[in-house]
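Fold this sequence, please.
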Amino acid sequence: MADSMVASFWGPVTSTTELCEENYAHSSYIAEFYNTLSNVPCVLLALIGLVNAFRQGFEKRFSVLHISNMILAIGSMIFHATLQHVLQQSDETPMVWEILLYMYVLYSPDWHYRSTMPTFLFLYGAAFAVVHFFARFQVVFKVHYIGLCLLCIPRMYKYYIQTKDVAAKRLAKLWVLTLTLGTLCWLVDRIFCKKLSHWYVNPQGHAWWHLLMGLNSYYANTFLMFCRAQQRGWEPRITHLLGFLPYVKVQKPEKRE
């Protein structure tokens, strides 16, 4: 949205995307205040998932997945705080990298040629980063990202129908719920921005998108960790941190001498 009267520490807005929040309304150092701070819970959720992946001895791919969630959230914070195009890449490019990583985690257990998938996905992600930096995609970026997300859904559904555990199935349902609600918040914020900006209180739909997608990633990661633990015969179960935040606890079979 149009800049407020507060001076901008970062200079003129150069990003190709602006959201429905008044720029520099609360601080000269933060362009979009709520869109920036709403990423903090996403970082914390990813950190909790990372610690659990280490403690339970999951494969490195899950640690990398949680780290990518943190990188994405931090990149989003930097972008929304500055609204500079060069930093817009720190938000959008990690979004694509993260989805490519999800594709690897989802499909790699049944992939017979182990080296081909990570090599292809790495090269694809690197090529996209270069092209996107110079081309400054807008609509194409969104369509491309949605297409990659849709490729993940059939595999998630396969894991869902193969899983009999009620608590694990609830995680998959929460994944769908947060994705749906987050998308609605994003669409309302984009489509009805002019009307919302005249409300006494802006509902900050994009900030809610951040929060819901942070939860969405956490639920997805936890569900995938549960499924992987089942594949490896680790007897996983869903328990809760502080009584409300689900995480996977495994019981690995004892190694025979």
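The beta strands are 237-241, 245-249. The chain has a mean pLDDT of 89.
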